[in-house]
Automatic annotation (TrEMBL):
Native species: Odontophorus gujanensis (marbled wood quail)
Gene field: Rd3
Lineage: Eukaryota, Metazoa, Chordata, Craniata, Vertebrata
Protein name per Swiss-Prot or TrEMBL: RD3 protein
GO terms classed as biological process: retina development in camera-type eye
Amino acid sequence: MSLASWFRWNEPPNRISQRNPTEMVVETLMMELSWQIKQAEKQQRERENEYRKIKTGVDYGWLVSYPKQSYDISPGERLQLEDICTKIHPSYCGPVILRFRQLVAEYEPEVQEVSRLFRSVLQEAVEKIKEEEDAKKLAKQWNTKNKTSLSLTTFKSRSKISPFISDIKTISEDVERGTQPTRRVWSMPEFRNAK
């Protein structure tokens, strides 16, 4: 028996499973939310310990054991947040996380407020994506309109007008033939009395 079979050097490396990019975005954003909730809980516990220390003058923090995660968002709210996350394009995942972290650092929200802050960041990103898509659609429509108008312009410029062959009667033709011109003005339609 060879050592290579023990270490599995000859086998191809396991590849990361091919998943849908939308699923990866949802999973990444929800992991960020749960991490921020844990951090908010930790900060809230530290604030409570500082308050107790100031109030009683004694530090019993070493005696208290805290559960790993006591706050969790409701299943309905989680589904709503995951639904909003599906609307986020993968290229916006990083900026959304950065914006969320920035707001959490700025406001230092309570644990219950973290999910609302996360929702506002997601909705802001969805609106921005929608605005950019609308702008792209308008630009595309504008470009197609310009292309068609240019093609019509080039088509019109190719058509030639022959001044000697015309079905349009003019006053000068009537004078040259020696006939009497009619009384109407040529730019107006001809109205005749029905008798």
